[in-house]
């Protein structure tokens, strides 16, 4: 490991721990997803979200692909909210724990809901360090007040292949 990566990692861990102790974050939403095709599961992921206010949300995604864990932190800013759709801007920072490579990305996400209870969701991200586009297209179907089923297709920062995903989202 390069000499300068270790102090940066220690500083980031110290700042994240100190900020969480003083800020007292709360987990407002949890998403569980299984990614793969019809034959096998390629990865499992869990995403924790903390809504700071009506506009800002912080997220932490942990992904396990069978070999290693990967993390992705994001800061989402909801800049457009209408009765039938919403759009967000996101600053994304993926981290591969195996080689401590921190990526940098920018993304747009949105959801639309019309006369039905189902919501169409989309997510488009660009990562500057890998010169890579990542996308998700999906549908959420509410099963209870704060719980929804999620189904869709997309790829991620660590795997360029298109995969199906299935899971659920729970508001706490």
What can you see in these coordinates?
- The chain is mostly beta strands and 172 residues long.
- The protein is built from 1 helix and 11 strands.
- The protein has a 10-stranded antiparallel beta barrel.
- The protein starts with a helix and ends with a strand.
Highlighted features:
single chain; 172 residues; mainly beta; ten-stranded antiparallel β-barrel; 1 helix; 11 strands; 11% helix; globular
Briefly characterize the structure.
The protein has 172 residues and is mainly β.
Number of helices: 1
Profile the largest sheet.
Answer: 10 strands, antiparallel, barrel
Topology pattern, helix = H, strand = E:
HEEEEEEEEEEE
**Strand segment count:** 11
Rounded to the nearest angstrom, the distance between the terminal CA atoms is: 39 Å
Mean pLDDT: 86
Write the layout of secondary structure elements.
Elements: H1 5-23, E1 29-36, E2 41-51, E3 56-64, E4 69-81, E5 85-96, E6 101-102, E7 105-112, E8 119-127, E9 132-144, E10 147-154, E11 163-171
Antiparallel strand pairs: 1-2, 1-11, 2-3, 3-4, 4-5, 5-6, 5-7, 7-8, 8-9, 9-10, 10-11
